[in-house]
């Protein structure tokens, strides 16, 4: 296949008609000199196969797909990582280092913070439509008692979809599938069908309590449902990339799902028995899971489960 990219969303057609001619586009973004290696590298690379890699480091895990058509990224960490991401991508790219797309798995800044830099480097940003809507909206985050400020338009995805979009490039198909009401209300998991790899975004935090962003439309039940979607598409050979934590497989995802279900059920039983949120926290029903403490501790996990079931904070 030559540089033919087929994308099954109407939005893409609209975006294409607004795009500058290819020649002018490439001249504008010509990169005659190679990018310079970072003086203090912050990222590490793990290779899944010759054409699929993961960048680890602070922020969400970045999927890097390479091949003759160019580069597609899943997420792009923080703005401070942009230069190093672009450097690493150039190292990994091989025959074609054109940056085609970045799929944001959701709106959080540790997954979309480099969007303006990636656009500058030639990428189209695509995501579920709620990502674009929330990026342009100022709203309260009750969990952190802080405002989520609207982001500048430079961060917003330019291609959006409601349920699913497919990218056909580098001889493979990548499907971005919306998982409703999960980590947020705008999550997608990305399924690379032929290489049998799934990037879960933040619907999966491996080996740690997940952040369930209820204030951005997420729920613990939706997180579990997202696990089920991925499990239904997995076999014993599937490589699972979490949003945070190390690469795993179907067995690891199965364990993570069981943990979420246990958290859900323990909180639900107490809530249905009439206990208050404070009483449940004091009872420490997740004490045996203390090794999962992350930036979300047991009390934060209980609170997220409580709110996912309709409980209020006051
Ligand atoms: Zn997130």
Unreliable parts: 1-24
Mean pLDDT: 91
CATH class: Alpha Beta
Largest sheet: 7 strands, mixed
Structural Rg: 20 Å
Overall SS class: alpha/beta
Cofactor: Zn(2+)
Protein name: Cyclase
Keywords: Hydrolase, Metal-binding, Signal, Zinc
Organism: Algimonas arctica
Q: In terms of topology, how is this protein built?
A:
Elements: E1 6-7, H1 10-17, H2 22-28, E2 44-49, E3 52-56, E4 62-65, E5 71-74, H3 82-93, E6 99-103, H4 109-112, H5 115-120, E7 124-128, H6 129-135, E8 139-141, E9 146-148, E10 159-161, E11 164-169, E12 172-178, E13 188-192, E14 197-199, H7 220-232, E15 239-241, H8 250-272, H9 277-283, H10 298-308
Parallel strand pairs: 5-6, 6-7, 7-10, 14-15
Antiparallel strand pairs: 1-11, 2-3, 3-4, 4-5, 8-9, 11-12, 12-13, 13-14
Helix pairs in contact: 7-8, 8-10
Bound molecules: zinc ion.
Protein name: Cyclase
GO molecular function, one term: metal ion binding
Pfam family, one: Lactamase_B
Describe this protein's structure.
The chain is an alpha/beta fold and 314 residues long. Helices cover 31% and strands 20% of the residues. The N and C termini lie far apart (58 Å). The chain binds zinc ion. Zinc ion (ZN) is lined by residues 106, 108, 111, 183, 202. Keywords: Hydrolase, Metal-binding, Signal, Zinc. This is Cyclase.
């Amino acid at each position: 296949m030559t540089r033919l990219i087929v994308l099954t969303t109407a939005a893409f057609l609209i975006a294409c008609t607004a795009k500058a001619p290819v020649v002018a586009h490439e001249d504008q973004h010509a990169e005659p000199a190679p990018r310079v290696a970072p003086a203090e590298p912050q990222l590490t690379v793990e290779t899944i196969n010759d054409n699929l890699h993961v960048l680890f480091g602070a922020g969400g895990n970045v999927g890097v797909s390479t091949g003759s058509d160019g580069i597609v990224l899943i997420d792009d960490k923080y703005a401070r990582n942009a230069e190093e991401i672009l450097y690493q991508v150039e190292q990994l790219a091989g025959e074609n280092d054109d940056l085609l797309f970045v799929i944001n798995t959701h709106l959080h800044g540790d997954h979309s913070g480099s969007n303006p830099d990636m656009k500058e480097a030639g990428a189209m940003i695509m995501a579920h439509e709620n990502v674009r809507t929330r990026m342009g909206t100022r709203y309260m985050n009750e969990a952190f008692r802080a405002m989520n400020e609207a982001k500048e338009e430079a961060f917003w995805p330019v291609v959006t979809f409601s349920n699913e979009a497919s990218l056909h490039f580098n001889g493979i198909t990548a499907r971005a599938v919306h998982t409703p009401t999960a980590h947020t209300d705008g999550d997608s998991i990305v399924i690379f069908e032929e290489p049998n790899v799934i990037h879960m975004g933040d619907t999966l935090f491996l080996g740690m309590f997940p952040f369930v962003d209820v204030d951005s439309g997420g729920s613990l039940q939706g997180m579990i449902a997202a696990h089920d979607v991925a499990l239904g598409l997995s076999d014993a050979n599937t490589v699972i990339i979490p949003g945070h934590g190390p690469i795993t497989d179907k067995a690891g995802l199965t364990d993570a799902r069981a943990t979420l279900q246990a958290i859900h059920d323990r909180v639900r039983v107490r809530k249905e028995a009439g206990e208050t949120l404070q009483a449940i926290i004091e009872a420490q029903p997740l004490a045996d899971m203390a090794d999962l403490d992350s930036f979300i501790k047991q009390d934060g996990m209980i609170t997220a489960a409580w709110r996912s079931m309709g409980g209020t904070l006051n």
